[in-house]
Amino acid sequence: MFGSLKKNISNYVLQKQGKHLVRSKELKTLENSSTAGILFKLTNNSSDFDTYLEFMHYLTSRNIRVFAIAYYEGKNIPAMYLNSKEINLLSFHNINWHFKPTAPFIKAFIETEYDLLLDLSTEECLPLEHISQLSRAKFKVGINNSSKNFTDLMIDVKDNTSPTYFIEQIKHFLTILK
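RESULT FIELD:
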């Protein structure tokens, strides 16, 4: 009961804050972007983590500077994730009672006008939704999900929500858009 109440409060606060967001929207692709903010949720599956890192390196090879935030839902972040200097980590310890991230690097991430914001989370993750919705990024990309109606490009992956497939779709659409 309290879990759903906290989620409802979180969604209410987020919608209220999102209404006041001012950002300059602009169609951005892999060809005309120089910066990207990336959000994703970590699990205990190390191959998913490797997929995210490969995607970050792919973007970097295209001369796109990448800034990433990953959220781990558990109380203790596994050691395999702690060694990555490329990713700012969020956990249970730096979100408040209604799932709003409170880590020091969040405000700077949200206020930075990235060319692209790529929300790679394929399931509900309220801490990342806070960041994504409040971001001042010029072009926001995410999965087609009824609760995530704050992106500029929503990609429908049907029933295949693997990070690999979703990233392939992102690459495809951000290449063909003009």
